[in-house]
Amino acid sequence: MHVNTKPILLATTLFLATGLAGLAQPQPAVASGQEAKTFEKKITVTAKLEYLLSLPADYGKSRKSWPLVLFLHGSGESGSDLNKVKVHGPPKLVDANGPFPFILVSPQSPGRGWNPEVLDALLDSVIKKYRVDKDRVYLTGLSMGGYGAWALAAAYPGKFAALAPICGGGNPADAGKLARLPIWVFHGARDS
Predict the structure, then answer these.
(1) CA–CA dist 24, 36 (Å, integer)
(2) Strands 103-108 and 50-54
(3) Rounded to two decimals, what is the model's pTM?
(4) Euclidean distance between the first and final Cα of the chain, in Å?
(5) Is residue 2 very low, low, confident or very high in pLDDT (cuts 50, 70, 90)?
(6) Phi-psi sector, 28: left (phi>0), alpha (psi -120 to 50), beta
(7) For the segment 98-126, what is each residue's pLDDT rounded down to a tens digit?
(8) Residues 106 and 49 sit within 8 Å (Cβ to Cβ)
């Protein structure tokens, strides 16, 4: 027996078209005749960073909380070799002279740039695991890390006691978010 499916398909199409039409949100038309649309979807991202951790020499001898400095390296130290992170800045000084009297966290960017959400997740993890004085969390970075420091501080301005970006730029639109944060900015004369 052969059933003619054309009327069923037509009825289903009309039902869907009229039923779904009521669900569509009207979008304003733009001058070019194209429709403006919005995409929104909650996604989950796995944050993973390798990092160097330096604890103060006296960390294990007391139960006190310690200041924390987050150092973000420049583009030349990106990749998967953590020894590259020791080329400049605080990790280099710790390697040469021993630990500072604060907790130093020096993550390594696996590629180009820094993701503020991933860095915030790393900080939350370190603060939970170690005895960190949450009122004395400081942020610094060099070159690409300076850009990352500006972006991270703008995304989470209440998290830091002070910011010291070196040879990195920020977004002037973020100035209002950073107005109450002490900032010591360094930039070299040969940096564009």
Answers:
(1) 13
(2) antiparallel
(3) 0.77
(4) 79
(5) low
(6) beta
(7) 999 999 999 999 988 999 999 999 999 99
(8) no
